[in-house]
Design brief:
By secondary structure, the protein is an all-alpha fold. It has helices spanning about 5, 20-30, 40-45, 50-80, 90-110. It has one domain (about 20-110).
Amino acid sequence: MSNKDFFDSDDYTGGFDTRDIEQNKVLAAIGYIPVLFLVPLLAAPHSRFAKFHANQGLILTIFSLALGLARKVLCMIFEIMPVFRHFVPTIISSVVSVAVLAYMVIGVITAAQGKAKKLPVIGGVIDIIHY
C-alpha cells in the first residue's frame, strides 16, 4: 500500500446536495475535533453532509479514546521497567498524539473543502450516525 493509497479514500461527495455542502461545511469541519461531533448534529440535524462528517468525527473520537487507553496501559507497563521508564512512554504518547492530530487535520480539511471522504483506515469501520 503506497502513501497515496493510505490517504486516499472513496469520495461520496456526489451523493450530497451542493447547497447542503456549502451551508454546512464549517459545521462539518468542527465535528472532527474529538467530542465536538455533536455540534453538526445539533446545529444542522437535517443536513446529510453534516451527519456524514459527524459520523466520521464520532469514529475519530472513539479511535482517540481507544488509543488513549492503549497508551495508558503501555505506559504503565513500561514505567515499571527502569531501562524504558523515561523514553518509551514519551515516544508512545507522541505517536498517539500525532496520529489523532493527523486524522483531525485530514477530516477538517476534507470537510472545509466540501468533500465527503471517509477517514483513511478507520473511517469505514462503522456507520453509527445514519445520514
